[in-house]
Amino acid sequence: MLSLILVLVIIFSVVYFLGRKESSLPPGIWGWPLLGSLPASDIAMPDQVMALRKKYGDIFTWRIGMRTYIFICEYQLIKTALSKIELADRPELYSFDVFTEFNKIGIANGNGRFWMNNRRFALRHLRSLGMGKATYESVIQYEAESLIKDMQKLSGKPTELPWSINVAVLNVIWRIVADRRYDIDDEEVLEFQELINRIFKEVSPVVLYYDMLPWLPKLIPASLNKMLGVNEYFSISQQTLKRMKEVIKEHQATFDPENPRDYIDYYLKEMEAHKDDPESTMSIRELTYTLEDLFIAGSETTSSTLRWAIFYLSKHQDIQRKLQKEIDAVVDKNTLPSLKHRERLAYLDAVIKEVARVVSLLPLSVPHAAAEDTTLNGYKIPKGSVIMCCTEACHNDPKLWEKPDEFYPEHFLDKDGKLIKREGFMPFGTGRRICLGESLANIELFLFLGGLVQNFHFELAEGEDLHPKKNPKDRLINTAKPIQVIISKRKGQE
């Protein structure tokens, strides 16, 4: 009996010693050995972070499970942190790693030279294909015209915004990646869109506990994962990867290295050219994960921002009318807004940016990880720490914004109505892993929203509001909620 007690005391002492908080860490909460201090399940994570910021300051520690999280809630500190190569890794989180089959490769979830090589290739070739340039303006405008035609069917009665918004955004990515597009009501693309949407909506709480307690999956019998909802999440990831593999195989069967058609062809061409290079990380597996990254990251964020924009304009009728007046004065009613109008449509750009600021679509950004021990603001950041940058805190900082709690597009305009850049604004992140689709997303939002506001007037249906309270189930992205609006054709635009 005494020997058993002695063993338990030794085990507890070792666990306590290994799990104790170092004095050199930022202040914060630590919790119990092995468990840490788990977040509340009925309060959105960003709201919990903001409450802790009031107590501990702009940088603090929160031990969640067995992981040390460092939260950074001030713009200059975030810029400094994300410029460090030591903090450019992605952490090993079950909910992310399942989409790369638990490999740290690809763009969004890759580390080291796998990430650097893929990002470098993607930036170079997406630019050469016209991403973020006027080259793809006609592609986006074609999708805008299709979207407008679809919305005309909903005119005059309360309705939720249609899935054709998401399909229009997806089609732009499909054209760049695989030189194909789908009709608005094509069953295949609707199923694919629904699959992506489920990634953000159907996350079992057990999966999130797997993130916090990495030892937990090893204790849960495989037979229980189905009952706990983990298998469903894994199935979504496998279906997404299967779709990417099918598209790649189709390209391999028709590949002509002398006439590359799209991103996949350029990748296959360069992969072949570097097949004997030991430093090359290019492979079909890498390409599969990269395509998955482009679709998941590039579709939901843009389509959700577009939905939020319509909701905010529906609520703020004065801003919507001002925007329509600007568009009507610059763009002929028989044509859609285009990039040639952009300099004279500064208010449209300002509205888009203000939507991104107010909504903070990624309120805690995408998690980073410390690849090695480093320091920040005088504190130690240990290797393996998860770094969470609270962009929402920056977007609501009264030191940076004149009216942080209001929807005020003038935040992004000077006294002459010209568009300006603002410190503290980072909807696409910042630093070494800033979103590589930023320029494309900005053009898409400009052309899509411009075309919709030119052709329709939006208002909230009776009894609807924007539901400013966050949903605790939203894991990473502040997705637009299902709100009913009334879509009316504007006079002269029938």
Automatic annotation (TrEMBL):
Residues the entry annotates as binding heme: 435
InterPro entries: Cyt_P450 (IPR001128), Cyt_P450_CS (IPR017972), Cyt_P450_E_grp-I (IPR002401), Cyt_P450_sf (IPR036396), Cytochrome_P450_fam2 (IPR050182)
One biological process term in Gene Ontology: organic acid metabolic process
Signal peptide region: 1-17
Keyword set, alphabetical order: Heme, Iron, Metal-binding, Monooxygenase, Oxidoreductase, Signal
Superkingdom in the source lineage: Eukaryota
Pfam families: p450
Necessary cofactors: heme
Presence of the UniProt keyword Iron in the record: yes
Presence of keyword Signal: yes
GO CC term, one of those recorded: cytoplasm
GO MF terms held by the record: heme binding; iron ion binding; oxidoreductase activity, acting on paired donors, with incorporation or reduction of molecular oxygen, reduced flavin or flavoprotein as one donor, and incorporation of one atom of oxygen
Family from the record: Belongs to the cytochrome P450 family.
Name under which the protein is recorded: Cytochrome P450
Organism listed in the record: Halocaridina rubra
